[in-house]
Prior knowledge:
The structure holds 2 protein chains of 2 kinds. Chain A is mostly beta strands. Chain A has strands at residues 3-7, 10-13, 19-26, 32-38, 44-52, 55-58, 64-70, 73-78, 87-94, 105-106, 110-114. In chain A, 0% of the residues lie in helices and 57% in strands. In chain A, the strands form 2 sheets. In chain A, strands 2, 4, 5, 6, 9, 10 and 11 form a 7-stranded mixed sheet that branches. In chain A, strands 1-3-8-7 form a 4-stranded antiparallel sheet, with no helix packed on it. In chain B, 0% of the residues lie in helices and 57% in strands. The termini of chain B are far apart. Chain B contains no helices and 11 strands. Chains A and B meet through strand 5 and strand 10 of A and strand 5 and strand 9 of B.
Amino acid sequence: SQTIHQWPATLVQPVGSPLSLECTVEGTSNPNLYWYRQAAGRGLQLLFYSVGIGQISSEVPQNLSASRPQDRQFILSSKKLLLSDSGFYLCAWSKGGPSGANVLTFGAGSRLTVL
Amino acid sequence: GQNIDQPTEMTATEGAIVQINCTYQTSGFNGLFWYQQHAGEAPTFLSYNVLDGLEEKGRFSSFLSRSKGYSYLLLKELQMKDSASYLCAVMDSNYQLIWGAGTKLIIKP
Lengths: 115, 109
């Protein structure tokens, strides 16, 4: 069976500090990978998605970046955090290839507070 | 633009039935999803509809009308553990998911 791991679960960072959130998927190959952010009381905002190693699509221009160094590893980074980066970050995967029936499976989430 | 509308919050009684509506306007349609999200946790998949009609899965059912751009999630025999947010999402013609803001469901004993 497939599993998705995301860490760290919680972090508190000062403004201007770097960020690295990591996500790995097990039990599948060539998944589509996603990073979402969820602000309190709002819908999920797609930040980045990837259909393969080194292939990253950015949905929202900001000070965040993503990388996919291995097939089942997805990393969200920032060089300098802003207060507005606070939120609940979710990694997700789905089966590769375009299909309306591809269900997203989410990691447990990372709650980031920037002070 | 693309838009998903669902009520912000609903309240229901344990043991009762509740219907959560979702209307959408998107560029194309490749299916509609419902997810459940408990407070502080990640969303989990509930249902997927791509054809008109009702899909039943235990106490939960999901309905779709593509001509009306409308779906609902029906929860029967409500339990306290059903207290959560319910997210509606539509996959558009580019296979991108458009998310609603979610409906917070409060169950009272």
